[in-house]
Amino acid sequence: MGTVITLLAVAVGGFLALMVGFAFYVRARARAQEGKPAPALPGALGAQVAKGRRALVYFFSPACSACRTITPRVRELGNKNPAVHLVDVSRELETARALKVMATPSFVEIDAGKVLGYHVGPAPADVLARYAA
What we know:
This protein is about 50% helix and about 20% strand. By secondary structure, it is of the alpha+beta class. The protein has helices at about 1-30, 45-50, 65-80, 95-100, 125-130; strands at about 55-60, 85-90, 105-110, 115-120. The chain has a single domain, classed as Glutaredoxin, CATH 3.40.30.
């Protein structure tokens, strides 16, 4: 019985270590995008970015429980500010791939054709405040 418990503990510990490692990898990859030129993007968002205008792009998924909490607030912000764009990754996968989004929710700040900030998880309050004005 002790051997089974030990094996179970090792399996659970290994799984948790893998999940934590993946979270660090996603955040490191996101941070590596900061300062790089923004890629060509489709639609109205692409036109805005191509003109060098400032944009906050919020990536969400209907299956993401954190997104269900955050999306209504960001949608309200987007209704007031045309620089805020909501991207449903289940419908606009091409845009998510172009900006190398690996997790939802994610926020990408673009200005003058460059990625200024890339935030995985809830956006910092100062980021949302910049787009609330």
